[in-house]
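Q: What would this chain look like folded?
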Amino acid sequence: MEGRTLGAAALRVGTIGLGCMPMSWAYTTSEQVGEEAVRALHAALDEGTTLLDTADMYGPFTNELLLGRVLRQRRAEAFVSTKAGLLVGDQHIVANGRPSYIRRACDASLRRLQTDVIDLYQLHRPDPEVPVEETWGAMAELVTAGKVRALGWCAVDARTRRRGPGTDLYEATLTQLRRVQQVFPVSAVQAELSVWSREALGRLLPWCAERGVGLLAAMPLGHGFLSGTLTPGSGFEPDDVRARHPRFTAEMMAANQPVVAGLRRVAARHGDATPAQVALAWLLAQGPHVVPVPGTKKARWAVENARAGRLRLTDAEVAEIGALPPALGSWD
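A: My prediction, written as structure tokens:
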């Protein structure tokens, strides 16, 4: 990717990013150990990972602080992506897109990350009370000020919105992207994309490819399910997002095992490859603008995920994976 696709920092095509969210937010609190997360970040960088993706709301704030500990030593090796626009309360999350807040949030993120510039600054969610052009304009001012190199848009909540039959999952997202493009270029869009969640391939990825915009594939391992390491019925801690996820009931996890079995079949043809690596390699095969961003909090998984960039699937294998049965237990 070159030019404005993902800003001025060098993000190598064909590599895997690292999603930092699980290190301090949303997954298995008992396993969120700061020192292990630091080791995971170092291991990812050692393997050639460049994109490190976080947000101010993760923790909140502790995720950026954690990442800052590593960036203090290895900033030149990393492409730093963070997000703003959501405030976390005791029992709720609300959007805040007021320009004054966006400016304060950026300065706070810079301090926590221990850097003088953010490579990719993403709007986590648009504020329904603020015209998106105003929010995006404030973010564009941060680029002019040299605090941010490029701007991105998060569309990972699209699935949760109610929609009627025949409505495109990303119709509202594409409308908003067209609006903000008139204010300042969109360099990247982050959306859920994986073997079992392929909706972004329909209209969103083509929109990005036509404009040289990167697509950051969020949840590329289906919240861990596609790694084949989760056992149906094992349960999750109450604050783990999967405890309330419709695809993670014991019944649905069992029903979706054919998807993992298909990944295992392909992995077996590639020596010591894993289902997770096959799932990530399939995403890379969707086009040069796709950058998978698997999340982890452990060094061993960070290394395994990063090495998926070396796996080359045949065209027949890409088609075989694409023909796997659709996941059951969706939101529809």
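The first strand starts at residue 18 and ends at 19.
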